[in-house]
Backbone:
């Protein structure tokens, strides 16, 4: 089943919360992970772990243009939908 | 010369790009059974399988695993069954770049060591536990960062220092075992990793102004790794071999001075 955006957001924030102190329920996803205190290793870890759990793969070049968590959630969702549609 | 490598089971972490991939290909060409690991989603398996086929090498196994995760390390080693690993190349490296004072945090340093140096030890311990033996050859891939300035490379260099120190101490601990641990360090290898670390403009700059050989190819580094595992260099333990065409000695202000007329043209 294709994960919806809420599921994807929860997944991303679950992994982010392992790296930085935040409440996944109230985290401001219009901010970047760096704004929320993550370093570059944390960010790669969060993205990689999220993709792995969601069984999604996105080329690094596409990820590098993202500016906030909402953008990442949108890209993960769009990729999941495209994958489901074959 | 490489008969000893044929049929051996080789594990290369961070093995789907750059030095790691070329190392895997070098072993594959010599007839080894190669397993490459990479981070989830970071490699195109079909492209790598094609490269092995073109090299007339047995198809590699490509496993997506986080080298810093004990569970993932265990899962990778499970795929070897009871046969064990004959050659282990610890190539994976991942460090926090220090672009400014705010990046200079202990946590980033710890993570850099965890992803760059510790996989050497964690894999070896897991191999001993699972297979009841050590690999015959172990090679850690380092860099010249500990001894020569690489911009923003503070934590990566520190992690490589830790890696090289562990190589020497592991070699001591394993002196009575059929296991040789060494390290190979290159100076600058034009790969995506170098571009991401220093910047894409750096390699062309070195080609223009650096000494001939200041850039090494991934294949050159891979050849040294393969030779260390060939049986011909089994007298070497705990060594850190530098692949730099000798340029670290002479690619200095003195060379610039000697060649100033040409360089200032």
Residues:
């Amino acid at each position: 089943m294709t994960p919806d955006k809420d599921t994807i957001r929860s997944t991303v924030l679950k992994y982010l919360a392992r790296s930085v102190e935040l409440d996944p329920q109230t985290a401001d996803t219009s901010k970047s992970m760096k704004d929320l205190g993550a370093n570059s290793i944390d960010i790669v870890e969060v993205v990689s772990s999220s993709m792995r759990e969601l069984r999604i793969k996105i080329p690094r070049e596409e990820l590098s243009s993202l500016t906030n968590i909402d953008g990442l959630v949108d890209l993960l969702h769009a990729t999941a939908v495209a994958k489901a549609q074959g | 010369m490489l008969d000893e490598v044929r049929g051996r089971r080789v594990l290369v972490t961070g093995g789907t790009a750059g030095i790691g991939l070329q190392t895997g290909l070098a072993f594959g060409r010599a007839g080894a059974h190669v397993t490459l690991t990479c981070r989830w989603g970071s490699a195109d398996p079909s492209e790598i399988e094609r490269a092995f086929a073109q090299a007339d090498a047995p198809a590699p196994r490509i496993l997506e695993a986080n080298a810093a995760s004990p569970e993932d390390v265990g899962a990778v080693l499970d795929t070897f069954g009871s046969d064990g690993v004959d050659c282990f190349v610890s190539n994976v490296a991942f460090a926090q770049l220090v672009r400014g004072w705010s990046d200079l945090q202990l946590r980033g340093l710890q993570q850099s060591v965890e992803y760059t140096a510790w996989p050497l030890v964690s894999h070896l311990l897991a191999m001993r536990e699972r297979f009841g033996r050590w690999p015959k050859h172990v090679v850690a891939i380092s860099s010249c960062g500990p001894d020569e300035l690489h911009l923003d490379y503070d934590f990566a260099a520190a992690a490589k220092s830790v890696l090289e120190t562990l190589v020497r101490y592991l070699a001591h601990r394993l002196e009575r075992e059929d296991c040789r641990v060494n390290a190979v360090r290159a100076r600058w290898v034009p790969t995506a990793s170098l571009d991401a670390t220093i910047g894409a403009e750096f390699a062309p700059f070195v080609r223009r102004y650096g000494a001939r050989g200041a850039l090494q190819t991934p294949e050159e580094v891979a050849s040294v790794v393969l030779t260390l595992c060939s049986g011909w260099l089994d007298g070497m333990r705990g060594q850190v071999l530098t692949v730099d065409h000798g340029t670290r000695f002479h690619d200095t202000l003195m060379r610039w001075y000697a060649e100033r007329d040409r360089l200032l043209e």
Notes: Residues 33 and 187 of chain B are 29 Å apart (CA to CA). Chain B has one domain: 3-263. The interface with chain A takes residues 39-42, 64, 66, 94-97, 103, 105, 107-108, 111-112, 115 of chain B (CB under 8 Å).
